[in-house]
Every structure is written in C-alpha cells, then in structure tokens.
C-alpha cells in the first residue's frame, strides 16, 4: 500500500522463522527488519508514505507485531510511551504507569 493514506495495516507470514529465532540472540537478525513496513523509508517522503504502519507477521509458533511511525508526526520516545500505554490498557491494568506528558519543553 504505497499511497497517501494515514495508516497502513499489513499481514505477512514467515513459515520458516520461530519466536526463538527473533528473541534468541543479542543482535537483531536481519530477517526482523522485514517485519517493519517502514524499513528503508525516510521521513521526508511522507507525501508518498502513510503516517503509521503496523505489520503483523505470523511465525511458526507465534506472531510479531511491527509498528512504525513517520517522524514528521512524532518522535520515537513519544511513540514508545504510547505503545507501552496501549499494551498496559490491553492487559487490563487499572492505572497506567506513565501518564501522558503534554509539556513541550523537551522538544
């Protein structure tokens, strides 16, 4: 999906890769780069790329969810804070561990 939409959802399958192959070493295997839809993209091409991309890759014994965001919209720390908060809410926690910070002093 290389068009001017806001988000890109993609499903992929890698029937030759196990979860242990992804998590089993200190170095990230080269195959994992393909689990992210924005691999090899640069932010100034927003005109042709979506703002958010999520790719769910089915492995032999699990799934890998690769998320990427265009840096013209947000930066890495805020994205990970959002993603971790989303995970906490999905797990059903009563109180999130990091409340959103709307202060613009750190930018």
Automatic annotation (TrEMBL):
MF terms in GO: transferase activity
Ubl conjugation found in the keyword field: no
Statement: the UniProt record of this protein carries the keyword Repeat: no
Assigned keywords, A-Z: Transferase
PANTHER family to which the protein is assigned, alphabetical: FAMILY REGULATORY PROTEIN, PUTATIVE (AFU_ORTHOLOGUE AFUA_3G14730)-RELATED, TRICHOTHECENE 3-O-ACETYLTRANSFERASE
Protein name: HXXXD-type acyl-transferase family protein
Lineage summary: Eukaryota, Viridiplantae, Streptophyta, Embryophyta, Tracheophyta
């Amino acid at each position: 999906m290389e068009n001017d939409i806001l988000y890109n959802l993609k499903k992929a399958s890698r029937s030759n890769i196990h979860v242990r192959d992804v998590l089993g070493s200190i170095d990230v295997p080269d195959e994992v780069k393909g689990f992210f839809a924005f691999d090899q993209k640069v932010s100034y091409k927003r005109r042709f790329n979506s703002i958010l991309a999520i790719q769910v890759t089915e492995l032999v014994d699990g799934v890998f969810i690769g998320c990427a965001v265009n840096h013209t919209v947000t930066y890495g720390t805020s994205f990970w804070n959002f993603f971790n908060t989303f995970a906490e809410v999905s797990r059903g926690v009563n109180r999130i561990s990091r409340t959103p910070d709307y202060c613009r002093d750190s930018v």
